[in-house]
Amino acid sequence: MEKYILPEIPDYHLLPVYEQHGGYGALKKSLGMKPEEIIDEVKKSSLRGRGGACFPTGLKWSFMPKGNTIPKYLAVNGDESEPGTFKDRMIFEFNPHQLIEGILIGCYAMGITSAYVYIRGEYGKWIKMLQKAVDDAYAKGYIGENILGTGFSTNIYLHQGAGAYICGEESALMNSVEGGRGLPRIKPPFPAAFGLWGKPTTINNIETMANVPLIMNKGWEWYSKIGAAKHPGPILVGISGHVNKPGVYEVPTGVLLTELIDTYAGGMLDGKPLKALIPGGSSTMILRAEHVPGVTMDADSLKAAGSSVGTAGMIVMNEDTDLIRVITRIAKFYYHESCGQCTPCREGTGWLFKILKRFEAGDATSADIDLLLDVANNIEGNTICALGDAAAWPVQSMVKRFREEFEKRVKPAESIAS
Amino acid sequence: MLSPENLKKVEAVRSHYPDSKAALLPALWIAQEQEGWISTDMMRYLGDLLGVTYAHVMGVVTFYTMFIDKPQGKYHIEVCTNVSCLLRGSDKIVDAVHKCTGAKPGQTSADGKFTVSEVECMGACGGAPMIAIGEEYYERLSAEKLEEILNTLA
Ligand SMILES: Cc1cc2nc3c(=O)[nH]c(=O)nc-3n(C[C@H](O)[C@H](O)[C@H](O)COP(=O)(O)O)c2cc1C
Ligand code: SF4
Ligand code: FES
Predict the structure, then answer these.
(1) Which residues of A are less than 8 Å from B23 in CB distance?
(2) What is the ipTM score, two decimals?
């Protein structure tokens, strides 16, 4: 398939090259349309967010109050800290202008005059790359005052995070932009009503915004025919773990997971059989190898398989993998990253990690297996933000789908009695 | 405390936000780049500069893992041990870093040259196992390659 997010054009990250290939044409076209026409176009395209929740982008935009008399903000989420996820970084490096163009179109459609691009602190190098593209776009009059002589003005600012996974959660991100600790806020109020500095705000993922110029250029009908009908478009899939060619691959949604492994990622490392697969970043539910055939990379298929698309960061594990070690490491991550505001998450993530360490060390009892589920079930749905769920799902799915792995690590009964 | 040039940078970044508190994270980055770390004096200074309390600045510095509140080695080696790196042999990288520098995660080498940290996913899972030294990412590592890289650092 032709590539639209990461096209194979040399130096596409440079403004003149981007322009030669029609770059900023979608912006020009959009500025000649009414804002609500753009929102309608994005709605009809069925574009769904690429940040993890697959939320319909056009619908999200339509929640924003109309007009441009009050300040409104766009926050673009490049925190990219979910383990297994490394795709937004490719956009900063290889196609920053398409991201900028998408941001500008979004700002015009929602009547926004300031956009903040939040990028994780570790991406210092990539922040500089995007900043260069932003500076070049300012110099050519694409960003700033009176854009292309249309009277529309907007600014784009980059905001560097400083090492906190939780800042990828949209309300924590806003607190971080405001200069505070990245603590999630209780919802409602939702960001479209009370966001940055208490003003209406939309938060979208980097890749989501990079899709927008495509829709405006070629129309919603064209876009909605790419890939899976209910979750269409090109999608960046990051493949890591036991494959021959790990990396980020652009594919149409709806591609088979087996094809992603065998064709795109060059097959299993050393030809060893697949044991398990995490389809969309560490918080998505793990799948057993025998349940992978026939499953495709889109919201419906993965939901039916008992998991989700998440960030489309696929973690592939072969038969030699110690899944107890894998889940213990994942649990450690969520324990480390919990912001501590809610008791179930603060305490529960610590409990999960502690119990899992017992399995790792061979000190667990068979009662600990159900204790894991009990703790996870008590976190899920009982917290301010979805980090609690993100910590519970991998443990729940691992226990349910790989119970034998836990049973194997339980202390023999006689050694407990003695 | 900030050099005149860096003070100008902070002033420029302040204009990006409707209030000055929001300039705190960028200001801390600028301060950390200048000094290598953020002292309590610097926290007080930045608080006064941006009109926020020292307690707030301290709260922010301690919340984010990348703000460093004590001096550290010349090179900060961050070794990712999260899932994708674990699957591709990050254990060996942790050992190799220890062998080359004498420092384990959480330690600084005896000569003060290297501070080593075990870190969460760095967004380079396709290049696992990986480390970062400052802003530079080193991906698809082996123990040998790692040794070569560390040997080139003066
Ligand atoms: C703990 C946590 C971490 C998150 N991290 C990210 C992230 O790094 N990048 C991102 O785009 N969305 C992240 N999200 C999802 C955001 O809250 C939000 O849904 C998303 O940015 C919306 O963009 P989209 O609609 O374009 O997908 C995270 C959510 C949670 C609960
Ligand atoms: S769920 Fe966890 S991370 Fe989210 S607000 Fe509660 S304690 Fe913080
Ligand atoms: S797990 Fe190591 S970079 Fe993602």
Answers:
(1) 179
(2) 0.98
